[in-house]
Q: What sequence folds into this?
């Protein structure tokens, strides 16, 4: 990968952040789309043994995390005691809710039906595991759609609880909350990026909390539909994507500083790249969690992946079928971020938005060994 080409954007790339989609709703619109009454997150402190289910309705997949409240002092992670919990089960189902959203501005009926079916399957898993508390959130795809109210209404009916529509800032904050719950990082500050299907989030934090946060419509599904017309993508296609992203992110991250913070990548893009580097035939979150990849190694992966046909991509060890067409645009966002902030390496985290939700449901701390039970990316 040519560093110079990645640094110098093409002459006239279109502004991705200003794509022709319905504007992100205001705070008032978010509240009217789904009331917060009865929100389990606001409920009293859970009793010992209480199990809760967190549902994350993303642009590319729906994720479930089931947690169980532990007694104070049960966690020996060196973190503050009180409200600890452990992971019981995790599951992820690909739905492509954001399919064609960039072109039509609405959630397609087929995509919504896939998501409703996935929610029903995940709800049955939560009920079988005795989860009595539930929290569900929707993110970028639903935010950007003009038919979001109808989707939220039906999704809430399927789950039997209100599905909250998060703003971009709330998505960034909750994701960071989940990543920062990992005692592995402490006491170091984090610079986190999460690349979803519809949007990507950046958070600069310290040991005291969040310092700056940003959410942009630069998710892997959106970028794939905008830039990836065929496979192999080729060097020309890759450099066009990198250049456009650089033009978008350079001013957006101009006031962000890596400093002595650890750069952490969460979400399917980061963990899948770790799995590819490890050539995992079967996804193993105990191996991808905390895996470190250098910027040079990431560049090499992008070069190689961009030279492969779709059939060849489907045979890459560590690359799940549901992400074969998303790993190049997602990896490009990660690479350009690393260039701009000067990060020489990225550490993968299996924790994310659903962990932030669970932290709100059951408490601030999870056991350090439970990340190994995570679902496939």
A:
């Amino acid at each position: 990968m040519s560093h110079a080409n990645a640094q110098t954007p093409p002459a006239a790339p279109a502004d991705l952040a200003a794509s022709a989609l319905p504007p992100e709703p205001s705070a008032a619109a978010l509240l009217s789309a789904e009331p917060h009454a009865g929100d389990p997150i606001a409920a009293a402190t859970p009793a010992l043994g209480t199990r809760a289910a967190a549902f994350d309705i993303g642009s590319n997949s729906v994720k479930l995390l089931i947690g169980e409240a532990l007694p104070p002092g049960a966690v020996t992670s060196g973190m503050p005691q009180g409200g600890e919990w452990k992971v019981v089960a995790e599951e992820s189902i690909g739905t492509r809710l954001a399919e064609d959203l960039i072109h039509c501005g609405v959630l397609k009926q087929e995509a919504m039906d896939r998501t409703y079916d996935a929610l029903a399957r995940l709800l049955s898993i939560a009920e079988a595991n005795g989860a009595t508390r539930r929290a569900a959130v929707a993110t970028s795809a639903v935010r950007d759609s003009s038919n979001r109210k109808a989707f939220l209404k039906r999704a809430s009916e399927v789950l039997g609880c209100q599905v909250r529509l998060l703003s971009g800032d709330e998505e960034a904050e909750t994701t960071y909350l989940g990543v920062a719950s990992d005692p592995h990082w402490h006491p170091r500050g984090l610079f986190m990026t999460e690349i979803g299907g519809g949007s990507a989030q950046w958070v600069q934090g310290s040991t005291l909390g969040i310092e700056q946060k940003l959410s942009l419509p630069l998710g892997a599904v959106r970028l794939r539909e905008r830039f990836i017309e065929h496979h192999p993508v080729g060097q020309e296609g890759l450099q066009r994507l990198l250049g456009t992203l650089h033009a978008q992110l350079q001013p957006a991250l101009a006031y962000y500083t890596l400093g002595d913070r650890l750069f952490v990548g969460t979400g399917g893009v980061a963990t899948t790249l770790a799995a590819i580097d490890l050539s995992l035939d079967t996804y193993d979150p105990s191996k991808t969690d905390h895996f470190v990849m250098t910027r040079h190694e990431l560049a090499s992966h992008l070069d190689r992946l961009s030279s492969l046909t779709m059939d060849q991509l489907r045979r890459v060890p560590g690359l799940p079928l549901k992400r074969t067409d998303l790993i190049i645009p997602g990896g490009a966002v990660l690479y350009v971020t690393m260039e701009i902030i000067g990060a020489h390496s990225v550490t993968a985290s299996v924790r994310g938005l659903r962990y932030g939700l669970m932290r709100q449901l059951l408490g601030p701390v999870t056991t350090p060994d439970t990340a190994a039970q995570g679902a496939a990316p």
